[in-house]
Design brief:
mainly alpha; two-stranded antiparallel sheet
């Protein structure tokens, strides 16, 4: 996976500062996005929503099929047709996206609840 936020911003003629204002994320964090190997879940959610993209769209995922084939060799159908392969990978992609969405929602809920609890304790 290779981040492509700067490419997206350039295509949209949008600055990092404008995105920072739209998301509430500090501009230096936006600046480092494409250089980072790890990203905070909340930043991924905020940026993808601000740009009206899926989280997956923020990255170039060129070797996805090769990675899946290597990870799940027994699942590869020897005589499969391209349509079957597309369906197979789309199902996996959908499952992964559902798991990511669920986990992101859980993390956001945890942070919101923690903040509420912290405020109640004061």
């Amino acid at each position: 996976m290779k981040p492509k936020l700067n490419k997206i911003l350039k295509e949209r003629k949008m600055t990092q500062t404008e995105l920072a204002e739209k998301t509430g994320i500090n501009q230096p964090v936006i600046s480092r996005f494409d250089k980072s190997k790890q990203h905070q879940d909340i930043h991924l959610v905020l940026i993808s929503r601000a740009l009206d993209l899926s989280i997956e769209d923020l990255f170039e995922i060129e070797d996805l099929y090769e990675t899946l084939d290597a990870s799940f060799p027994t699942m590869k159908v020897a005589e499969s047709q391209p349509e079957e392969d597309d369906l197979f990978y789309n199902n996996i992609r959908n499952d992964i996206n559902e798991m990511l969405e669920k986990r992101i929602k859980e993390l956001i809920d945890e942070k919101v609840n923690k903040k509420k609890n912290d405020q109640s304790a004061k």
